[in-house]
Amino acid sequence: MRRRRFLSAFVVFASVWRTLQASPAPRIWLVQSEAGGIYAETAAVVRLELPMAAVRDGLAATVLDAREPPPALILTIGAVALEETLRWLRQQPSAAWQRVPVLATLLPRSSFLSAQSLSDGRPLSAVWLDQPWSRQFAILRRLLPERTRVGILPGPETRAVLPQIEAEARAAGLRLVVGPAIDTPEQIYHSLREVLVDADVLLAVPDALVYNAATLRNILLTSYRARVPMAAFSAAYVKAGALYAVHSTPAQIARQSAQIMRAYLAGHPLPPPQAPREFTLVANARVAASLGIVLDDIDRIAEERRAAE
Questions:
Q1: What residues contact residue 152 under an 8 Å CB cut-off, 6+ apart?
Q2: 175 φ, ψ to 5°?
Q3: Which residues contact residue 305 at a Cβ distance below 8 angstroms, ignoring those fewer than 6 apart?
Q4: In DSSP terms, which residues pair with 230 in a beta bridge?
Q5: pTM of the entire structure?
Q6: Which residues pair with 177 in a beta bridge?
Q7: What are phi and psi of 57, to 5 degrees?
């Protein structure tokens, strides 16, 4: 009797094993905006997280290939990769290509929303870089409890979400100090001067017109001279002179993206676009000391916030 049960179990196991062996690995394309750097780092982590998949990654010119059957899923890494991929998919005449789902990652929320019009109704989702406002304001209150007047430089992308920012700031017991509208780079300095009259902390918001490589140094210097620290969204900004930043690393974004991809391959639909779940808090001790700011243990503050969420 025991031998029969053993043989029966063995037959079932062998059957399942043969099925698994016969099933082809799901094909996934990873399209990077640029070669190397954070894009390659993200792709490498996704590969490690999806050992069951047949992954092909690289730039759009080398990955997107209509001579092959459509993949099960395409992950785009960066804003350029998303736009290139969606435009390429629109050019494919076969209906099979119009059903290929796309998950976008490592890009600002505004870039994803701008590219949505190219989706042609296909399944499309994202893990964007922008931190939830509730997270940012909760950490700001915890790190700088005495500073409640938050300066905002309202470029075009920021103005589009300003009502949401204001609502989250009020919920956190903070008051926004919004400068005059910025539509050209020449207007940044005037708006910044107006904001620094009343604000006691400057919140940098991902807005390509306002915060970029050409403008960051002057914004940091001007706010530093006014003794108004910057709360930023990038570790690079902290190195450049911001007081602190709440951001998500490429590895953190990649793990979240891979989790969504595993669920999709298991039969679940793509979820709605979402903010990063994992985050990192970094600070510039030198800037804090020069401004006379005593920062609490940032690692403990980050852990407290993760527990609260």
A1: 158, 162, 165, 176, 177, 178, 179, 195, 203, 205
A2: -120, 130
A3: 135, 138, 139, 142, 279, 281
A4: 202
A5: 0.87
A6: 151
A7: -140, 160
* Contact by Cβ (8 Å): 260, 271: yes
The tens digit of pLDDT for each residue in 47-99 reads: 999 999 999 999 999 999 999 999 999 999 999 999 999 999 999 988 899 99
Q: Rounded to whole angstroms, how far apart are CA atoms 97 and 70?
A: 6
pLDDT band at 210 (very low <50, low <70, confident <90, very high): very high
Mean of the per-residue pLDDT values of the chain: 92
Q: What is the pLDDT of residue 23?
A: 56
Q: What is the pLDDT of residue 22?
A: 46
**Cα–Cα dist 46/121, whole Å:** 26
What is the 3-state secondary structure of the chain? CHHHHHHHHHHHHHHHHHHHHHCCCCEEEEEECCCCHHHHHHHHHHHHHCCCCEEEEEEHHHHCCCCCCCCCEEEEECHHHHHHHHHHHHCCCCHHHHCCCEEEECCCHHHHHHHHHHCCCCCEEEECCCCCHHHHHHHHHHHCCCCCEEEECCCHHHHHCHHHHHHHHHHCCCEEEECCCCCCHHHHHHHHHHHHHHCCEEECCCCCCCCCCCCHHHHHHHHHHCCCCEEECCHHHHHHCCCEEEECCHHHHHHHHHHHHHHHHCCCCCCCCECCCCCEEEECHHHHHHCCCCCCCHHHHHHHHHHHC
Residue count of the chain, please give it. Answer: 309
